[in-house]
Specification:
Chain lengths: ~400, ~400
């Protein structure tokens, strides 16, 4: 058995659906659908993973693709979980890790969702896909669509990172720029795909992107030696990664591969677009659309996430929290982490550093707790986050070096 | 025994040197020095690698770092070796692979040399390092130097990729821009470090960068199931990667882990800077400085490589060849590989595609031979290699989709 996928389930109304035909949102309540597996049938032992390649397909029993020949891969997965002792000391923590998702194809964690989402789409007969994106998902899905031989259209705000336009174009994706936000792009895509034969593969519009994202949770558990940290800090736009990590850890607990409580999940948003933080503070189960959304951490500029209720449920269930950080703070932390650890984080990743500092200061995180930060993409995508200070000298000039300290 | 390093050897005059103190070039003939290992003492079995983490340190017996606590890591290594069947068909080949070095920290293969070079430098007591660079090496060494707590100065041409300035700055490296070529920067660094306490860590100026680069060869052999391909096509500037792959495969043959002839190595240069190709065509053992060097494949703009004689020897010994490709050709291949395989190559990597096409056309490569191309960096570093064609629509606009083909 290559995949233990059994059916799809609506987390809102509990209806179940056939996972072996194309599905979008729940036909009765318009919620995203989640993939469910026949976990008791999985006979895989953890130790057997040693012999598998270091990519996310090593967990194929717990992924939705039915057969190995349907895998569309660019070598994604098993990103490093880096011990960052200098940063830990700066934040007042004993044990801090950064999982560096910048080392994935296309430079962001979006590659995980695209690899699994595109593989499954092709397996189910999809030939053309469209999505709204803040840039990185469009770049990733375009790359995997090209690899799969499928048609891809992405609609992204004109303010999305320039390089994601280039990535989309390089992969032959159809690119539409929207003079607005991802929510505007989303409305357009939804309207356009209706009855067209194109599939809407926007965030949580189909059930399999999250299955790719959840492999962050599998890897985290494996890399820690099959245990869970105390706290996971996650930059949250659409929130699929956060939901996915909780889903993955829950599946591993069900399999008996992990024990103990799930980590407390922390949802980090930017002060300029923090609908889930506002909802969490109000104890609400859903968020309200955020007006005039704006932040340099462009990947998390999502005014209203389709899966907000799942993110909030994950925070409440794990004893987690949600907080917003300012652009100035997170940009300072891009520089701090570069200097201390040599890691060039994306602004979304840097936001988790700022948030952690605040949570240590408030006492919500104890200094002895083990904390994992998710850096969701490469700083290479965001060239304007770091000021460059350099002297220029002529070709026949002289260089002087300071004394060695 | 963590490392089997035994001594350093001069490949030109055969003198040997102590590997456990800092060394630069050969004091008697100014050649780069190469690390040599006590291979008969290595009792490691290939199968034992399965239990090691998927990074380049899995080969630590064959690397120069003496103790695990001296490793400086950002999670580098075990980049994917991707089967590219559509591109193979387009080039008229049965079996073609691309090893994607873009998925390394800092976005290029330079991370391998930096990880091992910085680790060993710190182990030997170095506190401050300086180098000339075409950008990517400076970005990588700055990152690892920051991670190690060492001081780093990089001197790069003003034409080097903008993002590598940002990467250097993000890591807190000291950045000097040179209104000239890497050779100009190299002269300045050499002059400045003399007697300063700073170490010149330019290409092959110290013996350990190549030890990191050679892990491309180890991984290639392991990923192919401990066998060698027929041909390896490599974009060549300083040439350390090409020399390193041949060195690695030779070490594995000595260990008895591999059998058979080494792959025929192909050195690819840009038509605007092809000193090694010119030397190869003349049957020479060294290259002459290339005047007015210029190519979009900036990483290989090296007018005169210190290790040119080692590159040429590797080509002659393996029955390899050298050829140059034009910027127009390689840029067309960036787009081709994006469309066919979803991979956004760096221009240097795309040059290997152009070269392979020419070698198949000339009959130098047989269609049934197995060929490996090295993509030495991420396309993210080179945003100007792909034209972007997009329409912009207003936030309340309408999107129309073409019919599904």
């Amino acid at each position: 058995m290559f995949s233990a996928l059994s059916h799809l389930e609506c987390p809102r109304c509990a209806a179940t659906y056939d996972a072996f035909v194309r599905q979008g949102l729940c036909p009765s309540c318009a919620s995203p659908l989640l993939a469910r597996y026949d976990l008791p049938s999985v006979s895989l032992q953890r130790s057997a993973l040693d012999e598998r390649a270091p990519d996310l397909w090593r967990y194929h029993e717990l992924l939705p693709v039915s057969a190995p020949e349907n895998i569309v891969t660019l070598g994604e997965g098993m990103t490093p979980l880096l011990d960052v002792p200098r940063l830990a000391a700066a934040l007042g923590l004993d044990r801090l890790w950064i999982k560096d998702e910048g080392l994935l194809p296309t430079g962001s964690f979006k590659a995980r969702g695209a690899a699994v989402g595109v593989s499954r789409a092709r397996e189910l007969g999809v030939r053309a896909m469209a999505m709204p994106t803040n840039g990185n998902a469009g770049a990733a899905w375009s790359a995997y669509a090209a690899r799969a031989g499928l048609d891809m259209l992405v609609a992204m705000p004109v303010d999305a990172p320039m390089i994601t336009r280039v990535e989309t174009a390089a992969a032959g994706g159809r690119l539409v720029l929207v003079d607005g936000l991802i929510s505007d792009a989303g409305r357009m895509v939804s309207a356009a795909v209706a009855g067209s034969g194109w599939s809407d593969v926007g965030t949580l519009k189909e059930p399999y992107r999250i299955e790719g994202k959840k492999t962050m949770g599998f890897e985290l558990a494996e890399q820690l030696g099959w245990r869970m940290p105390d706290v996971v800090v996650y930059p949250t736009g659409g929130g699929v990664g956060l939901i996915g990590i909780v889903k993955a850890l829950g599946e591993l607990v069900s399999l008996g591969w992990l024990a103990g409580p799930l980590p407390r999940m922390v949802c980090v948003q930017a002060a300029g677009c923090a609908p889930i933080v506002r909802a969490f503070d109000a104890g609400a189960s859903e968020s309200q659309p955020w007006a005039d959304a704006r932040t340099v951490a462009f990947g998390i500029t999502v005014p209203k996430a389709l899966g907000d209720f799942l993110v909030l449920a994950a925070l409440y269930e794990t004893g987690g929290t949600a907080l917003a950080v300012t652009d100035d703070e997170l940009l300072a932390d891009v520089a701090l982490v570069g200097r201390l650890e040599g890691l060039f984080l994306c602004p979304e990743g840097a936001a988790t550093v700022t948030a952690t500092r605040a949570l240590v200061a408030s006492g919500w995180i104890d200094p002895h707790e083990e904390v994992v930060l998710l850096n969701t993409g490469s700083g290479l995508i965001y060239p304007d986050t770091v000021p460059v200070d350099a002297v220029t000298i002529p070709a026949d000039g002289r260089l002087t070096l300071p004394a060695v300290s």
